[in-house]
Specification:
By secondary structure, the protein is an all-alpha fold. Helix content is 75%, strand content 0%. The chain is built from four helices and no strands. It is elongated, with a radius of gyration of 16 Å. The structure holds fe (ii) ion (FE2) (2 copies).
Length: 135
Amino acid sequence: MAIAIWSSRFETGIPIIDTQHKALFEAVNKLADSFKAGTSAAQVKASMDFLVKYTVEHFQTEEKYMREIDYPKLTSHMAEHAQLVAKAQGLQAKLAEGKPVTVEVTTFLADWLKHHINEVDMGYVEFLKAKNRKG
Ligand SMILES: [Fe+2]
Ligand SMILES: [Fe+2]
């Protein structure tokens, strides 16, 4: 079940960022799929581990990029990233301890991702456009 469906409204126009965002959508969908009956706990854990690792990598790429363009809202953007990483690592720890995690977490992650790209990531896209207009 694809719960994170890519659309052009998520496109930043920055190739590396778009590639990573698409891969994050796929990772969330893969995690959602792993909640299907018959999937082993080890597979759910592997999907969550991948998602956390890839999310951290993406945030590092994005934060480096925002520093390069002197984005003024870097600090608050990084705070949102840190909150999500803490939440995702909490879920990861629960799975590692064998505690139940419900499929609803994937809806949370999909919604977070869509919101974050549209409302927060687009902030540096707009900033860059304005900066380029000024020359
Ligand atoms: Fe971001
Ligand atoms: Fe992003």
